[in-house]
Amino acid sequence: MTSEPSAPLRERIDALEEEQTERVARAHTAVAAAQDRVYWLDRWGLDLNALMRRRGASQGRAALRVLRDVCRLAIRAKRGAAKLPRGLGTAGASAEDTDAPPPLAPMTAVESFSRSISPEPLRSAPVTDLLYERLSPEDVAEVERRAGERLGDVDGAERRRFLLHLGVHHGVPGVLECTGLTQDMPPQEVHAMARGPLATGGSTYYADLVVDALGSAGSPITEGMRWLDFGCSSARVVRVLAAAYPACEWHGCDPIPDAIEWAGEHIDGVSFARSPETPPLPYEDERFDCVYAISIWSHFAAPAALAWLREVRRVLRPGGTLVMSTHGYQTIAHDHRTDRRDDAQLHEVRSALWEEGFWYRPEFGEAGDHGVANPEWGTAFLTPEWLLARATPAWRVNAFAPGRVEDNQDLYVLERR
């Protein structure tokens, strides 16, 4: 016969069940809120990442983080005081309670995942500036007229990016003719990394990121260079680079079928190929001068990360360059700041990076990522220590910028030796 739990244990079980119910309710609320935000951002044609890079946004985020942490601390303290079972962990516990579960851990302050080291922001906008300089004053005035209040107080390189994208979105003839950018955008059923008016024509920000990284590492773009966008999706970066530098040879590859098929049918000046989920790539040895991979090594499990590093080295000529981004310590701070992951998982990631230098989970599940259902394709975090211990001496490190990619991912420039 199964005996009934003791009173303290019953109270503990009830408390845990109540907490689980609350967590599920909060999760449902968060999902509903996120869906609502996405709907209205798309309805208004807003690029949230771009807005968060505007002047004054960082101070606003900092204030919101402080307020959020204070609220979290108050909620946890209240919950802890309300749910602590009577008699547990006290000197007055009776002998018959010795089989009860251990006392609840004391309430502590909200764990901080902030960092004193600041991300290194993008320092130049070479592609944006090159394309913008092709516009006439009349072209710029027409885009500003059509954009209206949407430009707000955005200035500098970000304003030039906005003007380029909005000029393409509105089909301003001078913008389309002078820049070589095109209006074609993937439909909803085709994989794309960004949508909306400020994504029309591709990503000038990520094109700037790649070219700036090369320049900072002493490898400027020259005529006739052969490039590969490794993991190009539906071409949001390579289409901009091909428009800016038509005298170079451009290639893109990706394993997602609908994305690469759409790109091949709609983007001129680039050769596209569907890549396999495991090496080798469909290119001969030493084919390229430069390979770039934005948020690709942020998804490989450790064995795949090393296998693809060897494969990219094979298709690069000696002295060729790999520009790549990864999740790292700065991503932990970013994900905490944006509530992308909960504190428990962030603590797990940080502990794994400290102890092993690598963290991986196949977070896409059985359904996979838009048709890519591979156990070695999920979400990965890694440290420079882990990467460089395995990459060198086959690669030389020419540049490293923590958090360079939107205050989030780390950026590396590696030279093939």
Report on the architecture of this protein.
The structure is a single chain. By secondary structure, the chain is of the alpha/beta class. The chain has 2 domains: 7-86, no CATH class; 186-193 and 200-416, Vaccinia Virus protein VP39 (Rossmann fold, 3-Layer(aba) Sandwich), CATH 3.40.50.150. It is 44% helix and 14% strand. The protein contains 14 helices and 9 strands. The strands form 2 sheets. The chain has a 7-stranded mixed sheet with strand order 3-2-1-4-5-9-8. Helix 4 packs across helix 6 (156-169), helix 5 (137-147) packs across helix 6 (156-169) and helix 12 packs antiparallel against helix 13. The termini are far apart. Residues 81-109 have low confidence and may be disordered.
| SS-based class | alpha/beta
Tell me the fraction of residues in β-strands, as a range: 5-15%
N/C terminus separation: 72 Å
Q: What is the name of the CATH architecture of the largest domain?
A: 3-Layer(aba) Sandwich
Query: Are there runs of 5+ residues with pLDDT below 50, and where?
Result: 81-109
Q: CATH homologous superfamily of the largest domain?
A: Vaccinia Virus protein VP39
SSE order:
HHHHHHHHEHEHEEHEHHEEHEE
| SS elements, strand count | 9
List the defining traits of the structure above.
417 residues; alpha/beta; Rossmann fold; seven-stranded mixed beta sheet; two-stranded antiparallel ribbon
Secondary-structure blueprint:
Elements: H1 7-44, H2 48-52, H3 57-83, H4 126-132, H5 137-147, H6 156-169, H7 173-179, H8 204-216, E1 226-230, H9 238-244, E2 249-254, H10 257-266, E3 271-274, E4 288-293, H11 302-315, E5 316-326, H12 329-337, H13 343-355, E6 358-361, E7 379-382, H14 384-391, E8 395-405, E9 409-416
Parallel strand pairs: 1-2, 1-4, 2-3, 4-5
Antiparallel strand pairs: 5-9, 6-7, 8-9
Helix pairs in contact: 4-6, 5-6, 12-13
